[in-house]
Give the backbone structure.
Amino acid sequence: KKNEANIEDVAERCYDEEIWIGAKILFLILKNWSRLAEVYVKLGEYNEAVECAKKANRQPIWKIVCFGCVRAKEFRLAKICGLPLVVDPNELMEVVSFYESRGYFEEVIDLLDSALVHEKAHTGLFTELGVLYTKYKEEVVEDYVKMWWKKAHLPRLVSACEEAYLWLEATYLYFQYEEFDNAARVMMDHAPDAFNPDMFSDTISRVGSMETMYK
């Protein structure tokens, strides 16, 4: 035990002084997978870092390795570490922001899309992927919202569609959300882009506001 404590002290000193090879050897002896993952990132040994992250299986370590791999443009490895993060509602936005702020739109979309089938997929995941599509892949938004609107947070998704001038998709979401006044308003304000004759008839029959009816 005392010997192990001594090794740990030396390992931590190596880490603090950025003696990465020494730290790697000592953390390997100790089987300290968390610290070892960090050291491998520092050394640019990303495959090994991912393997240690799997053994450590802790969110802070997944994040360190994921972000290290993104910085190195090792996106396949980053995706492995990113999946356990984006299925955690508390980690999702930081991961999305990290990719997005560096211009890696395709890669973060690919990561979130892969996570949709995960058993821990959550509302935020479906919502944020939809938001990313409104920014960077407008052509798929219509199919996406029709497929996944029940799993998304509709107010945020509607807002993203309106910011991207995707009026048809915004109308569809308002209708599904039973915000019939808003659905009718968007269709009238942004015809012909948002106008769907069948949906308009159905929407008008459910409108609650007389002001909208008079329009």
The chain has two domains: 1-115, 122-215. Confidence is low (pLDDT under 50) at residues 210-215. The domain at 1-115 is CATH 1.25.40.10 (Serine Threonine Protein Phosphatase 5, Tetratricopeptide repeat).
